């Protein structure tokens, strides 16, 4: 691990100013991702600016009926919060499906938004990786790419996004609140993460020195009828092969509203507008769910070792749809 200095920020203005002065500095909160990357030589910051003690650790109800989740709130506290469990169960399920209890007790909501890919070629500096070193190539394209993405890929990067929480946030139309050298921003979660394209080293729209302060969830009465289903190689502490976050509103066995997001298959948390278009206005039947799953994966592009993800994602989405339909009183 390279030498670095450490400072603890007193407030968000102090954190932003400190990071802005040092081009190679990085924020640290829970440290569950960045410390691993530093040990591996992927990240070599000159300074760590600790933001864990900033006063953004609460969940509050907003005047518009939604809730605001503080960026430095621990993932476990977010998952077990009564407002989240009652009004947005898909988010609680997604967080509890990620990592281990010990990691969830350290990791923060803002850090989860910023976690980097678990692509083994990204983590191993002996291999080429355009995400780690732009222009060096992508070893995963011809390598062992079983865990990699099939949606949103490019000839420069096929790494899958690892977060469970972000998949649920995409289904819930979350908005990321930030503060930076140029002021405050509200960023829709679907715009927060970037597709790799020709610049896979740019993963989010955040600028250097910009800090996540909170995540807003809109009032969404239909969200209590929701479910997160994660398929993985073992029962615990494994990243998703595929996952699905489903929010449905069903009235008289007709789907009136739908929010669909997928994990493990995209280079970013994947909102499937194609599946939603099939679902809305259609009867809540097996035939509709199958058509929606087919639509969700119609643009998928498999690689040598991950062809199986396409069919697995379809079946996972169908199962999640059936579960939410049963909750809503529709057909299952």
Automatic annotation (TrEMBL):
GO MF, one example: FAD binding
Superkingdom of the organism of origin: Bacteria
Every FAD-binding PCMH-type domain range: 1-222
UniProt key word Disulfide bond: no
Pfam families for the chain: CO_deh_flav_C, FAD_binding_5
Keywords: Oxidoreductase
PANTHER family, alphabetized: OXIDOREDUCTASE, XANTHINE DEHYDROGENASE SUBUNIT C-RELATED
Stated name of the protein: Xanthine dehydrogenase family protein subunit M
Phylogenetic lineage: Bacteria, Bacillati, Cyanobacteriota, Cyanophyceae, Nostocales
């Amino acid at each position: 691990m390279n030498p670095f200095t450490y400072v603890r920020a007193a407030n968000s203005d102090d954190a932003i100013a400190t990071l802005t002065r040092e081009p190679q500095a990085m924020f640290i909160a829970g440290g569950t991702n960045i410390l691993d990357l530093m040990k591996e030589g992927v990240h070599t910051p000159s300074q760590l600016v600790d933001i864990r003690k900033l006063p953004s650790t609460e969940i509050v109800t907003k005047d518009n009926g939604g809730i605001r989740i503080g960026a430095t709130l621990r993932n476990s506290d977010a998952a077990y919060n009564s407002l989240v469990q009652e009004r947005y169960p898909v988010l609680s399920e997604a967080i509890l499906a990620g990592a281990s209890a010990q990691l969830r007790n350290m990791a923060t909501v803002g850090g989860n938004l910023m976690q980097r890919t678990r692509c083994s070629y990204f983590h191993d500096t002996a291999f080429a990786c355009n995400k780690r070193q732009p222009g060096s190539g992508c070893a995963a394209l011809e390598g062992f790419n079983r865990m990699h993405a099939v949606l949103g890929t490019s000839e420069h990067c096929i790494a899958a996004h690892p977060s469970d929480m972000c998949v649920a946030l995409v289904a819930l139309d979350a908005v990321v609140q930030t503060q930076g050298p140029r002021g405050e921003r509200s960023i829709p979660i679907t715009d927060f993460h970037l597709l790799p394209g020709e610049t896979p080293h740019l993963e989010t729209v955040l600028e250097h020195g910009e800090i996540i302060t909170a995540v807003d969830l809109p009032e969404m009465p239909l969200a209590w009828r929701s479910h997160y289903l994660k398929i993985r190689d073992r029962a615990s502490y494994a990243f998703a092969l595929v996952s699905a976050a489903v929010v449905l509103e069903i009235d008289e066995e007709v789907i009136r509203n739908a929010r669909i997001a997928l994990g493990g298959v995209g280079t970013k948390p994947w909102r499937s507008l194609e599946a939603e278009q099939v679902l809305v206005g259609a009867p809540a039947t097996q035939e509709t769910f199958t058509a929606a799953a087919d639509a969700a994966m119609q643009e998928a592009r498999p690689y040598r070792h991950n062809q199986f993800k396409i069919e697995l994602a379809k079946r996972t989405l169908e199962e999640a749809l059936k579960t939410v339909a049963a909750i809503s009183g529709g057909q299952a």
